[in-house]
């Protein structure tokens, strides 16, 4: 005889994440929505992987609709950056959220070009302002990379960043 009546717990829906992809000029925009964490990153990784799988991909990742991101989301962005660079392309990020921009800066992903809006986003591959520069001087790409990118680990033209071209 059971000591108590046991009932199954009601199913709890976790906040999800999803992606919306569309073309904007010559770039593919991947607009990420919701909470990007270890439980939801699988729901959007296929969309970002498909966008960066093309030869010389030009991808803009819009993070404005993201309400939360953990290390799984940061890993997804880093992987997309490495994949695009390996195919002679690039990615740009859009976020107007101070905490997302701060997270990118703290985790050294601020070497990926970052803008607050589409209007501030030049074509992928053009010189850009990065989050830690605070809109200061424009960093231009180097013809021959100096040092190794902290994000992709290999000669990324945006990777010298704050290290001044020295490997870390």
TrEMBL record:
<feature type="domain" description="STAS">
    <location>
        <begin position="29"/>
        <end position="109"/>
    </location>
</feature>
<protein>
    <recommendedName>
        <fullName>Anti-sigma factor antagonist</fullName>
    </recommendedName>
</protein>
<dbReference type="InterPro" id="IPR002645">
    <property type="entry name" value="STAS_dom"/>
</dbReference>
<dbReference type="InterPro" id="IPR036513">
    <property type="entry name" value="STAS_dom_sf"/>
</dbReference>
<dbReference type="Pfam" id="PF01740">
    <property type="entry name" value="STAS"/>
</dbReference>
<comment type="similarity">
    <text>Belongs to the anti-sigma-factor antagonist family.</text>
</comment>
<dbReference type="InterPro" id="IPR003658">
    <property type="entry name" value="Anti-sigma_ant"/>
</dbReference>
């Amino acid at each position: 005889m059971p000591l108590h009546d046991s009932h199954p717990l009601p199913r709890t829906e976790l906040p999800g994440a999803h992606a919306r992809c569309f073309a904007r000029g010559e770039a593919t925009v991947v607009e990420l929505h919701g909470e990007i964490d270890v439980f939801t990153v699988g729901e959007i990784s296929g969309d970002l992987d498909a966008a960066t799988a093309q030869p010389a991909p030009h991808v803009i990742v819009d993070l404005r609709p993201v309400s939360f991101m953990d290390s799984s989301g940061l890993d997804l962005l880093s992987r997309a950056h490495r994949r695009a660079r390996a195919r002679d392309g690039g990615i740009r990020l859009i976020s107007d959220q101070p905490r997302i921009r701060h997270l990118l800066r703290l985790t050294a992903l601020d070497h990926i070009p970052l803008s607050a809006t589409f209007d501030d986003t030049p074509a992928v591959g053009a010189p850009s302002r990065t989050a830690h520069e605070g809109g200061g001087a424009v960093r231009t790409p180097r013809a021959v990379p100096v040092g190794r990118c902290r994000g992709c680990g290999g000669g990324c033209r945006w990777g010298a960043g704050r290290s001044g071209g020295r490997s870390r």
